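Exam revision sheet. Question 4 asks you to relate a sequence to its structure. Input first:
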Amino acid sequence: MAIDLKAAALDLLPEGVEGPGYDRVGLSAGIVHIGVGNFHRAHMAVYLDRLFETGTDHDWAICGAGVRPGDAKMRDALAAQDWLTTVVELDPAGLSARVTGAMIDFAEIDAASLVARMSDPAIRIVSLTVTEGGWFVDARSGGFDDSHADICHDAQAPDAPRTAFGMILAALKRRRDAGLAPFTVMSCDNLPENGHVAKQTIVGLAALSDAGFADWIAANVAFPNTMVDCITPATSDRERAIVRDRFGLNDAVPVACEPFRQWVLEDNFPQGRPRLERVGAEFVTDVAPFELMKLRILNGGHAAIAYASALLGHHFVHDAMADPRIVSWLAALETREIIPTLAPIDGVDFEAYRRKVAERFANPEIGDTIPRLCFDGTNRQPKFILPVVRDALAAGRPVDGLALEVAMWCRYCAGTDEAGAEIAPNDDNADDLKRRAMATKDDPKAFLSNAAVFGDLGDDPTFAGAFARQIGAIWSDGVAATLDRYAKG
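Answer key, structure tokens:
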């Protein structure tokens, strides 16, 4: 019989399940984290749990938070189990489970409660995982999008905010007026220069209603850049069954993730920080080179395999990575065109990192899916692929493989795989993308003329020519033959 996960059960954990060796009663919150999803609980919360296990920094526990009505469901589930989470590491050599206890509370799902919590002087860091698309970045300019309805509301009614950023502003203003030091704002989202994006969003929103306050934030609030990495699938009945049947625990919201984690942080925390370097985090002066490596080799690698694999009929990522056509294509693209755009990093072997990424993709225990990797190409391609294209063009390097990746996305957007099976739409712009993709049979420019995605890149003759050749080859020769031709050079 499985036991229900809660604080009272920590002394009764089944054999093979580890739990906190520290006294959670002695923890106090130093961090408010907005966006308590699977990634946060598999990554940041695990690092803190490991740190607390060393017997130090017990004043840096997490108070969870959310701003959307749907966040209440997570809050209720975690409250019922005293904020504990079972983390299962999906190691092909053998699964392991640990109950983590770094979270000790969760703010009520309303603006007043969250603002009050962030205003507490004990809170020295406010961190966020609100997804790549949740930062109000203008897709064309890369600047702050001040036209969104929620942003307009918060600008007009800063004392009754709807967004996490409006609530952060309200708390910062309250602290400033009370003579308290501002907390550090730390993005944990998978974005290039996520600290700069966080500053852009928060200062940009402040400027819409109070230019002086915006200037104060820009001068006094720290926004460190971070690079985060841990493949974490969504929780389903499969993961709950693993925890229940294999490890003897009933956990409504367990997390399953790969055994690999990486966290590189800019060491910019004026009000202090937990000593996470003791448990494997890396603090550096400049995160950008590490971030670029990860965004291009891992996230770019995901994009590279996503559409080709979907078109060849694969559903699971590990099955795609068992297909020699996909493996050869991925290795060729990353070795020839992606890695050459990266500046060297002392002590880092890009080829070893590339091989490790491929090994992680091939992990059959993760159960990651190709449809997840294909999701929201409109937002993901400009983040993970098109900047590589621009850098390669600027350096006079070849872009045939990068153009082939974009052509694979285009062919995917046409809505059927190579066997003729329908591909379910998974992009907010699916109808327009399909129309453009189908038109490339006669006019390759039809896809690249989507300025919201490609900007002026579609007018570059080198890239446009390479794309025209690759999409033409896909339509005439098929996906497999086109991939094979590129892989063989």
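Marking note for examiners. Residues 288-488 form a domain with the N-(1-d-carboxylethyl)-l-norvaline Dehydrogenase; domain 2 fold (CATH 1.10.1040.10).
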